[in-house]
User: Fold this.
Amino acid sequence: MKLAHIQIQTNNIEQTTAFYQDILKLPIIEKDSDSVSIQAGNSVLKFVENPQFKSIYHFAFNIPENKLDEAIEWCKNKVGLILIKDQNVITNFENWNAHAVYFYDNNGNLLEFIARHDLNNAQSKKFSSKAILNISEIGIVNENPLEVGKELIAKHSLEFFSKNDNSELFAAVGDDEGLLIMVQPNRNWYPTQTPSESNKTEVRIENNGALIELKFQ
Assistant:
């Protein structure tokens, strides 16, 4: 399952454009007075301006499974990586066979670089923004994560993520390539103390040749 296009909100389109273009060095593919579209590997991340928006999102980028250490070095002097424990910035997701690091964008959104070792995507080139492969996760906040997951599976022939212990509190739909991460409101986004909130989100998925358009509130 591929997350081809994600649309979320920002309260400052100019600052957001500057962060993704100048700090993360990602290409701007379209921009107008109240929106900007950013190329992130094989995915597009679109921000739409809402001056009253005061919440945050969580999303992740897949990077080559052998490039996490280089990605950490690349992040220095760009963003401050979030400490997990004992001055360590790396989270080991043993059940998912993945390692990840976290940081914030200019909006306070929680971003993640994740190296999934079951994907055959190792690269030899030195890590840069060009090594970002795609958007791999988007957080969706709903009172009933498990029920929403079941509805998506029934309607669009998707699947629960087999490596995740899906529950009424936290459920994931998709696979290593792309995941909808569904959590209940007020559940802190790992590894922060920031509670999750339901925010308008639009997602375009590619799955087994089908294009799926989803809108969440």
